[in-house]
């Protein structure tokens, strides 16, 4: 069965990592389509190529910073090319593209940053095809322009156009060649490069798998599995062997950065199974992300995460719930500021609106609050920035009501106050709100309660 394989920036950070990737690709002839990110961090305090490109785009052309970043960028690709003994002549094309990025850009101003960022993946795919050719394999660069992968919307947070799937379906390639596809960006209909949100190469992998009708998408990263909790919070957490699309989407949206939350959608639409695997330990089975829960879960919940990218607005006024059109007025104000909300748990006299705070700034919040005061005249209105959301996820959770009470008790009995509970109609997640300082402690307590094997056996 043909596969799409995507390699994240950590898997392509230098020559040694690149060699592992090449070995993985060549180990199985079914690995026909290779999606690459831009080179990532080689060590903890290193800078990803995407971040260097952002710095490059923002520096003044001709300034010393501009030339310093340009040099650093060329050397990131040069080191990989040298590792594989790519000739100077062949590499020169990549160096020239980097040097000339500022002058080759001819689109609308809004797209300039996206143009720079997209080149991280673009050049890495050109280099990967070169390396595979140099090693005697038939490989070809296939970028969004060639594939017909079209996008629309914001230049740095684009969304795929449906016609891309027809274009991909009609894309011709032969059985004996490897396609190397740059992740993270697509083309607008007027020929400009636009990127997905950060971490968006995962999205390209899903789009390409759905479009080409490929049913297995291997997503190679630097961990051996999707763990039940963030490994930066819990040391050596339990691995998830299998999970559903819905579980992964809930968890990635709220903090599991290992797989981009938007990338699940094309996989759902194309019924593509995702296998998250480790480039450094490719024989480990990894985590399978599948359409339906037709497997036995090992633990009562699938995962727990916390996320600080939410803020809340609390409104209180007696008889708030009886006022016809109150929510409409509120939503009209959000619409005016082009703000979407995530959740809106309510009581009889109060309402909490939870926002993704990455779309807000201080000035917007001030104007928004002033408009709400005018329109709704609340007794209490509080903007809460010091907020973290704890998300507990599992398809089986709601069959056993004690799971939620146990989770809450494990927090409140250990000094973590909860100021919001939201249980979605989806019946697979419960969201708890608390102060940021408690975020990691809350994840640890819930982890200890549900996954700590010693405790469970006791
Ligand atoms: N629940 C989780 N399971 C596994 N990894 C996680 C989880 N939550 C956060 N991560 C982090 O995600 C990282 C992998 O994602 P990312 O850095 O985007 O990789 P890549 O460079 O391969 O795209 C891991 O190194 C890990 O630190
Ligand atoms: N290089 C882009 C896109 C991406 O998906 O990268 P990675 O696979 O390294 O997370 C970024 O840094 O956002």
TrEMBL record:
What is the documented function of this protein?
Answer: Catalyzes the phosphorylation of the beta-carboxyl group of aspartic acid with ATP to yield 4-phospho-L-aspartate, which is involved in the branched biosynthetic pathway leading to the biosynthesis of amino acids threonine, isoleucine and methionine.
Q: What is its EC number?
A: 2.7.2.4
Give me the reactions it catalyses.
L-aspartate + ATP = 4-phospho-L-aspartate + ADP
Q: Which GO terms describe its biological process?
A: diaminopimelate biosynthetic process; homoserine biosynthetic process; lysine biosynthetic process via diaminopimelate; threonine biosynthetic process
The residue range of the signal peptide is none
Q: In which pathway does it act?
A: Amino-acid biosynthesis; L-lysine biosynthesis via DAP pathway; (S)-tetrahydrodipicolinate from L-aspartate: step 1/4; Amino-acid biosynthesis; L-methionine biosynthesis via de novo pathway; L-homoserine from L-aspartate: step 1/3; Amino-acid biosynthesis; L-threonine biosynthesis; L-threonine from L-aspartate: step 1/5
GO CC annotation:
cytosol
Q: In what residue span(s) does the Aspartate/glutamate/uridylate kinase domain sit?
A: 3-278
Classification via InterPro entries:
AceGlu_kinase-like_sf (IPR036393), ACT-like_dom_sf (IPR045865), ACT_Aspartokinase (IPR054352), Asp/Glu/Uridylate_kinase (IPR001048), Asp_kinase (IPR001341), AsparK_Bifunc_asparK/hSer_DH (IPR042199), Aspartate_kinase_CS (IPR018042)
Task: Give the Aspartokinase ACT domain ranges.
Answer: 390-450
Catalytic EC class: transferase
The protein depicted here goes by the name Aspartokinase
**Species, as recorded:** Fructobacillus durionis
Tell me the keywords, alphabetical order.
Amino-acid biosynthesis, ATP-binding, Diaminopimelate biosynthesis, Kinase, Nucleotide-binding, Transferase
Pfam families tied to this protein: AA_kinase, ACT_9
Q: Which PROSITE patterns does the record cross-reference, listed alphabetically?
A: ASPARTOKINASE
Question: Where do transmembrane segments lie in this chain?
Answer: none
UniProt lists the family membership as follows: Belongs to the aspartokinase family.
What are the GO MF terms of this UniProt record? aspartate kinase activity; ATP binding
């Amino acid at each position: 069965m043909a596969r799409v394989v995507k390699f994240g920036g950590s898997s392509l950070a230098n020559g040694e990592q690149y060699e592992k990737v090449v070995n993985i690709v060549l180990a199985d002839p079914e690995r026909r389509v290779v999606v690459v990110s831009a080179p990532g961090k080689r060590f903890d305090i290193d800078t990803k190529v995407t971040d260097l490109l952002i710095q490059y785009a923002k520096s003044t052309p001709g300034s010393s910073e501009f030339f310093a970043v340009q040099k650093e960028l060329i050397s990131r690709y040069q080191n990989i090319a040298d590792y594989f003994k790519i000739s100077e002549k062949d590499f020169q094309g990549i160096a020239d593209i980097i040097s000339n990025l500022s002058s080759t850009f001819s689109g609308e101003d809004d797209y300039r940053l996206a143009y720079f960022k997209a080149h991280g993946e673009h050049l890495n795919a050109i280099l990967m095809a070169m390396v595979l050719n140099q090693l005697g394999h038939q490989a070809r660069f296939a970028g969004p322009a060639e594939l017909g992968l079209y996008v629309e919307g914001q230049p740095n947070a684009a969304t795929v156009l449906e016609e891309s799937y027809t274009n991909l379906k009609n894309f011709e390639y032969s059985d004996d060649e490897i396609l190397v596809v740059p992740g993270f960006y697509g083309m607008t209909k007027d020929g400009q490069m636009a990127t997905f949100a950060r971490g968006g190469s995962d999205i390209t992998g899903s789009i390409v798998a759905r479009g080409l009708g490929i049913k297995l998408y291997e997503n190679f990263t630097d961990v051996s599995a999707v763990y039940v909790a963030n490994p930066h919070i819990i040391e050596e957490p339990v691995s998830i062997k299998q999970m559903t699309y819905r579980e992964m989407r809930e968890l990635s949206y709220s903090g599991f950065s290992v797989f981009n939350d938007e990338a699940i959608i094309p996989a759902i639409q194309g019924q593509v199974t995702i296998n998250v695997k480790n480039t450094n330990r490719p024989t480990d089975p990894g985590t399978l992300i599948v359409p339906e829960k037709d497997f036995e879960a090992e633990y009562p919940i699938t995962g727990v995460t916390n996320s600080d990218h939410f803020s809340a607005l609390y409104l209180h006024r007696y008889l708030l719930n009886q006022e016809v059109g109150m929510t409409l007025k509120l939503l009209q104000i959000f619409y005016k500021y082009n703000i979407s909300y995530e959740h809106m748990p309510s009581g009889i006299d109060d309402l909490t609106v939870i926002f993704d705070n990455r779309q807000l700034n201080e000035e917007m919040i001030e104007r928004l609050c002033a408009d709400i005061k005018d329109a709704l005249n609340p007794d209490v209105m509080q903007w809460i920035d010091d907020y973290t959301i704890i998300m507990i996820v599992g398809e089986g959770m709601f069959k056993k009501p004690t799971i939620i009470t146990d989770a809450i008790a494990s927090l409140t009995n250990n000094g973590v106050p909860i100021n919001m509970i939201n249980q979605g109609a989806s019946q697979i997640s419960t969201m708890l709100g608390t102060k940021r300082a408690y975020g990691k402690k809350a994840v640890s307590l819930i982890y200890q309660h549900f996954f700590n094997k010693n405790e469970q056996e006791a």
